[in-house]
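Hey, resending since the last one bounced:
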Amino acid sequence: MNEKINCPVCEHKACHYKRLEEVILCYCNSCKHRFTDINSIHNKETYSLDYFKEKHPNWFENQNIELFDYIFKVIRSAGIDSPSVLDACCGQGDLLKYLRQKTNNIKLTGIDFHKNDPEKKINFLCGDIFKTKFSEQFDIVVNLASIEHIWNVQDYIKLMSNLCKDGGIIITMTINDSSLVYGVARIIYKLGMKLPMERLYDKHHLNHFSKNSLEYLHTNSSLDIIEKPYTKWPMESVDLPKSNIVLKFIYKSALFVLFFSERLTGKTSLQTITARKKKSN
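The structure tokens again:
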């Protein structure tokens, strides 16, 4: 476990931190970032439709309306007539469908590996965002719960910037490794209760951003951070073990206490950064 590997955020040497069932975790002391050694993953996720229906059904069936409301307010506050919005790795397009209901004066585009059914006033693209050629830049670029699935995060955030107009806004939401839930999971793992940590650090999430590492990634890409809003993880969207009713009740009760504590401390399981792309000289 002494092997060194470059941190995908700051490129400093990081150490193997923990060997789990599916992956080997690494930790960077420089930017406080945890990430998966991708060479340790067998049977990598292809993100088929089954991922939405089976792996995280509650997440995709219970949308974070509070976050969607925040994004709409940011778009409206930009003061742009008919703003163009790109939802990168848009999943089933729930944010775009929500924005379409809020206003007709908006141009909506989404891209994902998953092929979405055609929708009025939404331009759904299917494919690899790194290989797709876009014909325009956008006023607002949003990426929600996607960056943690991507290994080359420096290239990803630069792509977000390239797709954004000068002076435009980039909104990034991801998990928060600095949160109480993640911290407690790491502690009780040492006490023999391994399931919470195994679920939080499964093979689907390659990067686990601390507040420090997510901010570093943005500022190092010449993005000006506007704000870091409180981001709630809706209780109903958490996927809990289905096979054991008693265990499910215990986890749900523990999460209720932790989520309440997160609201008091601000150490939430999700985090969001809203940044502005600097204007070219």
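The chain has nine helices and twelve strands.

Sorry for the duplicate.
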